[in-house]
């Protein structure tokens, strides 16, 4: 499981680097942006992307979420470190890590630092509601205290 996760992270990084190289090569000839400037970081609209999940209020819980589209469904795979041995609710909210608005998607609870949820939507439809944020909460008993959060934004 850990080796598969590491393999997926490496593939994601390689895909991201290759995508950015292609984008930079296309823009070098026609863009007035100086070579020393970097374009803003965005999530490429492909079938997979990864976000960082950061601890909230020194909770010690952080990790990643990998979003993968397959056959018209979106899989969200969460991997955390520093987690307690309890079930932790996870949601995708509209908004960001500073201000959440409404729940957009209910995800499978994080157990032993792992969670996998399949959402019946395409990547494009999912990303229409940006900005979005993935929140993980302290416990089922304390569903109002976020312990980690990651922003999902392509623009």
Keyword list:
alpha+beta; 155 residues; 2 helices; 8-stranded antiparallel β-sheet
Explained architecture:
A hairpin with an 8-residue loop joins strand 7 and strand 8. About 17% of the residues have low confidence. The two termini are 32 Å apart. The radius of gyration is 17 Å and the shape is globular. Strands 5-4-7-8-1-2-3-6 form an 8-stranded antiparallel sheet. With 155 residues, it is an alpha+beta fold.
**Proportion of beta-strand residues:** 35-45%
Shape: globular
The quaternary state of the protein chains shown equals single chain
Strand order of the largest sheet: 5-4-7-8-1-2-3-6
What is the CA-based Rg, rounded?
17 Å
Structural class by SSE content: alpha+beta
Topology of helices and strands:
Elements: H1 2-30, E1 48-55, E2 62-70, E3 73-81, E4 88-95, E5 100-110, E6 114-119, H2 123-127, E7 132-137, E8 146-152
């Amino acid at each position: 499981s850990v080796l598969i996760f590491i393999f997926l992270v490496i593939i994601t990084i390689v895909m991201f680097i290759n995508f950015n190289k292609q984008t930079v090569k296309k823009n070098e000839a026609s863009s007035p942006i100086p070579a020393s400037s970097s374009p803003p970081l965005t999530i490429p609209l492909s079938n997979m992307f990864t976000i960082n999940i950061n601890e909230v209020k020194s909770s010690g819980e952080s990790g990643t979420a990998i979003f993968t589209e397959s056959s018209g469904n979106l899989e969200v795979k969460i991997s955390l470190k520093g987690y307690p041995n309890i079930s932790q609710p996870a949601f995708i909210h509209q908004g960001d890590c500073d201000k959440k608005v409404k729940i957009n998607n209910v995800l499978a609870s994080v157990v032993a630092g792992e969670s996998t949820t399949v959402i019946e939507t395409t990547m494009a439809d999912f990303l229409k509601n940006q900005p979005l944020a993935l929140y993980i909460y302290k416990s089922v008993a304390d569903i109002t205290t976020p312990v980690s959060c990651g922003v999902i934004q392509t623009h």
